Amino acid sequence: MIRFFDFLFSFLGLIILSPIFLLLLIIGLLENGSPLFKQYRIGRNQKPFLLIKFRSMRKGTESIATHLINPSMITPFGKFLRRTKLDELPQLYNVLIGNMSFVGPRPCLSNQKKLISEREKKEIFKVRPGITGLAQISEINMKTPILLAKTDFKMINEMNLYFYFYFIFKTFFLIFKKSA
């Protein structure tokens, strides 16, 4: 049932938000000549997939976890995209084709060895990674891999339709609260 909602909402989102996508693509193209950022991440069953986002960092930035990046590498438009979470919109395509879900553990990079190890212990990779989830609404990030894996484990073991919609709505609430 969750996959049905993922497909439906991502399909509708891509259609309804297409004017915003176009605008963000044009602005990104004008700012840095390359509006989209593509990066391999670890997905379900540890299968790598190509994650797509709007570019928020300068071209050539090292492919490491966001919290390890020098803040000066974030472009002025990228700061806006990150604050509003609009940089995540292209992930609707990842959800549509089934690489991701709206709700699930955030996909990690292949060089995040500690996080991968902790997630393997807890079988986190048996589910699709997501755009949001318990860790995101709890403001737990990849800086704390043990806590993150523990939180992801709790989320996937309690997941149902109620929590699916709860995490989505709570994420929107937090985005609007921070943007206000």
User: Which descriptor suits the 3D outline?
Assistant: globular
Class per helix and strand makeup: mainly alpha
The first-to-last residue Cα distance is 34 Å
Oligomeric category: single chain
Name the helix and strand elements from N-terminus to C-terminus, one letter apiece. HHEEHHEHEHHH
Describe the protein's topology.
Elements: H1 2-16, H2 18-32, E1 36-42, E2 48-54, H3 76-84, H4 91-97, E3 101-103, H5 113-121, E4 130-132, H6 134-137, H7 145-158, H8 161-179
Parallel strand pairs: 3-4
Antiparallel strand pairs: 1-2
Helix pairs in contact: 1-4, 5-7
What does this structure look like?
This protein has 180 residues and is mainly alpha-helical. The chain has eight helices and four strands. It has a two-stranded antiparallel ribbon with strand order 1-2. A hairpin with a 5-residue loop joins strand 1 and strand 2 (48-54).
Give a brief outline of the structure.
Helix content is 51%, strand content 11%. Helix 5 links the parallel strand 3 and strand 4.
Keywords:
180 residues; mainly alpha; two-stranded antiparallel ribbon; two-stranded parallel ribbon; 51% helix
